[in-house]
Amino acid sequence: MTLHRMAVAVVLALTVASGAAACTTTAPPIERPLTVRTTADPNAVQALSQALATLSTESYRVRVVASHGRAVASGTVVPSDMSFDAQSATAVEDDAFREGVRKVGGAVWLNVAFPDVNTELRISAQQWIALSPAKLTVGTGTKFDVASRDPLDLAVLFDGVTAVWRSDPTHLAGTVDYTRSHGVTAPDADELSEAGKAAASTPFTATLDGDGRLLTVTIDADAYNPDLTRAITLSDYGSAPLPARPAKASVVSATPMVYQVFNEG
């Protein structure tokens, strides 16, 4: 696989379940009770569980900073309509590898802004590629979860919570076993391979607003690998706008090469 093709494979790594094409524009809330594997403050567990549940019912804006700024993802999420507009930027040598994905009414579009990749795909940084989810398979190096109502998989990041405490009504702290976390925001197996036992008790802190919704989360892995630290901020609950479809003049169809490179991973 050429260097260009490897770069394209990375940028096109969007997780799409085989049934994603059949999604309707509305979906019921997800009931996902938090299971903590060790002793913790029951009130804190409930507070965190409710805060995570809100991510499946209210619209919001989100920003995730990884590797202390070397990778940043952000977006607007409207879970009730299974719609979102998400972007990511990853430092590549002296440049930024930028990509975006937009999902509205079950339709999905990809945008890429990186010279080598734009040349390989023969599109400009201003164009959007219309994708057919039915033609995609799960890839590696995933940046966005297109099949989910949450493109950054924030709730399942907390699948690995092992303890949580509440110091006051708006502040939580605890530990997370990163090896049990899931989703595109969680570290992958290769990233965790050198962490050893430290990854099983990674500390985190979280702040809530007056309605018990998440405002900030910091998962602090600096003690063993700063690249695995995650700093998350959320805002505009209930008022984040529904994403718009890309302008028709800016949309191009996905070529067979796009699907071939994506599915080869």
| Average residue-wise pLDDT | 83
| Rg on CA atoms, Å | 19 Å
Give the helix level as a range of percent. Answer: 10-25%
The spatial strand order of the largest sheet comes to 9-10-11-12-13-2-3-4-5-6-7-14
Helix/strand structural class: alpha+beta
| Helix and strand run | HEHEEEEEHEEHEEHEEEEH
Shape: globular
Instruction: Tell me the number of helical segments per DSSP (H or I, 4 or more residues long).
Output: 6
What is the percentage of strand-forming residues? 25-35%
Could you give the count of β-strands?
A: 14
**Main β sheet profile:** 12 strands, mixed
Report the end-to-end length measured between terminal Cα atoms: 10 Å
Mind explaining what this structure looks like?
This protein is α+β, with helices and mostly antiparallel strands and 265 residues long. The protein contains six helices and 14 strands. It has helices spanning 3-11, 42-54, 115-121, 154-157, 189-192, 256-264; strands at residues 14-15, 60-66, 71-78, 83-92, 95-104, 107-113, 128-131, 144-145, 161-168, 171-176, 202-208, 214-219, 230-235, 251-253. Strands 9-10-11-12-13-2-3-4-5-6-7-14 form a twelve-stranded mixed beta sheet. A two-stranded parallel sheet has the order 1-8. α1 (3-11) packs across α6. The longest helix has 13 residues, at 42-54.
